[in-house]
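Ops channel
N.P.: pipeline sanity check, posting one input/output pair.
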């Protein structure tokens, strides 16, 4: 459960900000005869693994206690900082 939680948290940072799912778009025409508006509904891929993190922490809390669940969440926070650090470092270093 901890591995699934940490993997989902890592995917949230890496994939969640770089990929989007475009569900649909609607073109709205005004009565004035101007250019139509396009309203799009798209979500980041990061919303897909996000519910998994809640399930994992709930199960960890029920099976192993709140202290263990808090520890796993703290490790996930440190892991996210680690991932963000390396993403930032990879963006700032020359190619």
């Amino acid at each position: 459960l901890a591995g699934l939680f940490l993997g989902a948290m890592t995917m949230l940072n890496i994939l969640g900000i770089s990929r989007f799912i475009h569900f649909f778009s609607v073109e709205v025409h005004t009565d004035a005869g101007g250019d139509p508006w396009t309203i799009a509904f798209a979500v980041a891929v990061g919303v897909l693994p996000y519910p998994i993190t809640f399930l994992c922490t709930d199960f960890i809390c029920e099976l192993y206690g709140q202290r263990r669940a808090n520890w796993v969440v703290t490790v996930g926070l440190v892991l996210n900082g680690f991932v963000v650090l390396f993403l930032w470092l990879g963006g700032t270093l020359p190619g």
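N.P.: looks fine end to end. The two ends are 37 Å apart (CA to CA).
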